[in-house]
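Let us walk through a complete example step by step. Step one is to write down the protein sequence. Step two is to encode the small molecule, zinc ion, as a SMILES string so that its atoms and bonds are unambiguous. Step three, shown after the inputs, is the structure prediction itself.
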Amino acid sequence: MATRVTRRGVLAGSVAGATGLAVGSAATAAPGYRPTGTATRASAGSAGAVGRPRLRWLGNNGWEIRFDTPNGRRTVLIDPWLTRFHTGTYTEQGADPNTPLSVRPDVIDRYHLAADHILVTHGHYDHLTDVPYLAGKTGATVLGTETHVNLMTALGAPADQLSVVRGGEYLECDGYTIQVLRSLHSMTGERSRVAFAGTRPGHPPATPKVIADLVEGETLAYLITVGEVSIIDFGGSNYLGAELAGLRPTVALVPVGGGAIHRYVPRLLATLGNPRYVLPTHWDDFDYPLDEPARDYGGLAPLRTAVRQASPASRFVVVDHLETFTP
Ligand SMILES: [Zn+2]
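Step three: the predicted structure of the complex.
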């Protein structure tokens, strides 16, 4: 697959290739937040084996999980949002609910993404907007709630690729599994509320035009398992503890924030059995483009501290825009 080559991408590739280090270039990571994971690759090439998954951060909660199977390369995308139109979400005033939705194929196509599955955590503009276009482009199967599917249908997604899930599904795929988990959205502001709350059950609504039209539509988390490596992703800084009981992911992709949630980080990490790797997600100000280093809007240090205190044995690995990490 032709991958867009950036300086970071080249460095990441050469570092991994030369030394077996799993982490992309630390040279461009924000000072003090260098990736620290040093897991070595499993010996490659044994017939019939599924390769170790490589994670690449696409900004916000966008992740590409790529691995090789005996039947070829497989790619799972989570909440891919490449267009990143300006909303002012992290400014003093916050996002204007009437900000028009925009999808930029010229921007999205730069990343040459492939996908077998696209997993949608919730309906908000910074998670779902680009998925209809990417579904058409890649032919991927797209998972989301009834509301997410209705919103994507209204945005022109190919209906026969969309699959309604509720949480609890455990899907056997070609060389990997996907567990869909009921979850919860972040609660923010003085009254700890969910932004653009609501659902759109039944038939697809009128075509969404502005960011407020993309309602949350309930929130899902996903556990993707590839061989011995499992990765759990949360699209918002909240979760349903009971849904996670007994899960032991290798990697937890944990959104920053969660201040309104009782013991957000310690409760999560204890429930998940203190994962080996914790990678922050949803920590960059997406008013700035993906091909620049991520700009921390303030959540990174508190999450790092909380993880260190709650689960000292977990490695907190910060991956910059388009950098990769192989657990
Ligand atoms: Zn959201």
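Step four is interpretation. Residues 89 and 95 are 4 Å apart (CA to CA).
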